[in-house]
Design goal:
Layout: H1 3-28, H2 32-56, H3 60-78, E1 88-89, H4 102-105, H5 113-121, H6 126-133, H7 148-164, H8 181-194, E2 199-204, E3 231-238, H9 241-244, H10 250-276, E4 281-284, H11 294-300, E5 305-306, E6 312-313, E7 321-328, H12 342-348, H13 351-355, E8 367-369, E9 372-374, H14 379-389, H15 395-399, H16 408-419, H17 421-435
Antiparallel strand pairs: 1-9, 2-3, 3-7, 4-7, 5-6, 8-9
Helix pairs in contact: 1-2, 1-3, 7-10, 16-17
The structure holds iron/sulfur cluster (SF4) (2 copies).
């Protein structure tokens, strides 16, 4: 066998191997279209490659052109090319008032003091919020996907999360353990991972990401929030791929509740441990108790980038994560924000916007919002849709190409997307081809 024939054979086997792995992992992911296309590609490539070999086996140089083209394609995908933009954050001059956040506004019931006070100060929100309140609440009868049997246990998990709200803070031990920042950082990160988090980072807490006033939860409504902690320990928990795949049906809400409960338990335990070591610490948990805005703080902690859909996108799990945090005055070494191509990828990929049933995700470019140049989600539209269907939807999270599971194939694509603008362009196209661009919405409860 000549060298050219050997090269042709080896490269052909590599291409076939890649397609077989793609077909197998698509089967495990239950992605019918990708299984079909990769299986078809397996057959066509094998036939084409054999035909090429049979035709040109005696013409060594010509025989090499096909494998060389394939190898060049691989190089173009993985070699660094072009630059990737970082999220542009300018001077942020004002804090957000938690009373104005949609999750707080949902809770203002007509006739209550909060309702009267809030809409006297913000009459422009009143009509739309009243319309929204006429829709059923999450996990309540009337939502399109409501199913009592599935909804009641999820409700019980949310109750457990709310019950944790009283444990977020406490007395700091007067006996302070001496730590240098590097030791403390290594210890804390190891503890958070041991408690079950999938990723952890430290941010220097930007005071502009602390809410100005309490809008929900057990603390007095409207009270000014004082949180002078210097650092935030932020962690992410991966959401189960197959549960997210069932979005917008109830399983995604079951998974959201499960991971928020885990995040709450980890945050409360971590804050307690830090206070026992003599440093102030407060846990921030879902369901009414955040003092800080988690996505931008998680960005500062190096956990990911903010994508078009407004969620944090992590390099390994994409948008398929839930966040938890503890703020503290323990001396720590902050991480730096990371850039891995999300801004460029989202400029070309509109999948979340195309699939968002409420039209809450912008299809256009980024705009300046409180000093940050980003895509701005229309939270009102999103929450209205949640109430109409009775779940927390999550279609955007499901369809995002970054949300694919961490298999060999997807991890290879992630490597290319991090390094090359050509790879990002090819991946947007490939994702639409293999997984389809537009999802069909399910009908009926469940
Ligand atoms: S959760 Fe659903 S409604 Fe909200 S932005 Fe995502 S896709 Fe749109
Ligand atoms: S679906 Fe596409 S556009 Fe939307 S966040 Fe994910 S990568 Fe960005």
């Amino acid at each position: 066998m000549s060298l050219a024939e050997l090269v042709c054979l080896v490269v052909g086997m590599l291409v076939e191997g890649f397609l077989v792995v793609l077909a197998v992992s698509s089967t495990i992911e239950r992605k019918g279209r990708a299984v079909l296309l990769s299986s078809l590609a397996c057959v066509l490539v094998a036939a084409g490659w054999y035909g090429w070999y049979a035709l040109l086996a005696s013409e060594s140089l010509w025989l090499l052109t096909l494998p060389v083209l394939v190898l060049l394609g691989g190089l173009v995908f993985f070699l660094p090319f072009g630059s990737s933009q970082a999220l542009k954050i300018g001077r942020i001059s004002e804090q957000v008032d938690e009373r104005e956040v949609m999750f707080s506004r949902e809770e203002y019931q007509p006739g209550t003091e909060h309702y009267k006070t809030y809409y006297a100060a913000h009459p422009k929100h009143k009509a739309a919020d009243d319309r929204m309140r006429r829709l059923p609440e999450l996990l309540e009868p009337g939502g399109r996907y409501y199913d009592k049997q599935a909804a009641d246990p999820i409700d019980a998990v949310f109750d457990k999360i709310v019950a944790l709200a009283t444990q977020v803070d406490g007395q700091t031990s007067p006996r302070r353990e001496a730590f240098d920042a590097a030791d403390a950082t290594a210890t804390i990160k190891a503890e958070v991972l041991k408690m079950g988090a999938d990723v952890v980072g430290i941010a220097e807490l930007n005071p502009m990401f602390v809410y100005s006033h309490v809008g929900r939860g057990p603390e007095p409504w409207g009270q000014a929030i004082v949180n002078n902690h210097r650092y935030a320990i932020v962690f992410a928990l991966e959401m189960d791929y197959h549960e997210v795949e069932q979005a917008p049906r109830l399983p995604i809400t079951r998974e959201t509740a499960k991971q928020y409960l885990r995040a709450g338990e980890i945050s409360v335990a971590l804050a307690k441990r830090i206070r026992e070591r003599g440093y102030a610490a407060r846990a921030h948990i879902a369901g009414s108790n955040y003092q800080i805005m988690l996505p931008p703080v998680a960005h500062d902690a190096g956990l990911g980038e903010l994508g078009r859909m407004g969620y944090l996108i992590s390099p390994k799990y994409g948008a398929r994560i839930r966040l938890g945090a503890v703020t503290t005055d323990m001396p720590l070494l902050p991480d730096r924000p990371i850039t891995f191509g999300v801004q460029d990828f989202c400029e070309q990929c509109l999948k979340c916007a195309i699939n968002c049933p409420s039209g809450a995700i912008p299809v256009g470019g980024r705009r300046l919002v409180r000093g940050v140049e980003k895509w701005s989600l229309n939270v009102e539209k999103c929450i209205r849709y949640w109430r109409a269907i009775g779940t927390d939807c999550g279609l955007c999270m499901k369809v995002c190409p970054y949300s694919h599971p961490s298999t060999m194939i997807h991890n290879l694509v992630r490597v290319g997307c991090r390094r090359s603008s050509i790879a990002r362009r090819m991946s947007v196209w490939g994702d639409d081809l293999f997984y389809g661009c537009k999802q069909t919405l399910p009908t009926g409860p469940g």
